């Protein structure tokens, strides 16, 4: 029995290849994450730190909550695919499962939401994060191709465990904004976050090993657009994104500043912090 069948038997009987099924799951995922974003914004107004944030930071706060929720989902689904899925592993190209379909469709819906929200925010506030946007675009394109070609569930779902760092990254930023950079909670979370990037490298090695072991089958049987996006994305994650983000989060452990909003330091007093702008000390201290 697969994971989604254990949650509810009906999920094992759905015709996932039908266009209406795809529309319902992808559209439902997009709507769900949009609602989480809106509800988070409404509920967070009860938090003083949130009310003191600038508009773009409020959007980032809401996105952080949505990303954390999705990261937990991916960690569960990716772990299932790697350690417990006995069906998809038999044929990494053609094997499909109900759990794989649900995971892929939810992922397409999430990255649709993420791409729309991030692009809208970038255009409204004139700030762009090329690396993050590239991550969103490759993930959306890759999983959309998996949904379209209806194959490649094993590695397509296994790779989602790379999102294990996302909940800790979101918590890192939110605690930072609450003025808790010197707290034990923030430091502990940061250490765990750094180790999730170490584990990401382990997972990426696992994906490369699986690609090597199944290369003949993948080269002969996989649709070329899907194969090209998978290899391109894996190269990008393994050689650029994971090493760079691991370095940034390690540096942040010793110098807890907000790199997402580089002008925070110039503003001196903001979001629960007092920053010494005269001696150039980038290390933030809690305001009294």
UniProtKB/TrEMBL annotation:
Cellular localization per UniProt: Membrane
GO biological process: lipid homeostasis
Chief location of this protein within or outside the cell: membrane
Residues covered by the TLC domain: 56-258
SMART domains documented for this protein: TLC
The keyword Membrane belongs to this UniProt entry's keyword annotation: yes
Protein name, per record: Protein CLN8-like
Gene that specifies this protein: LOC118420969
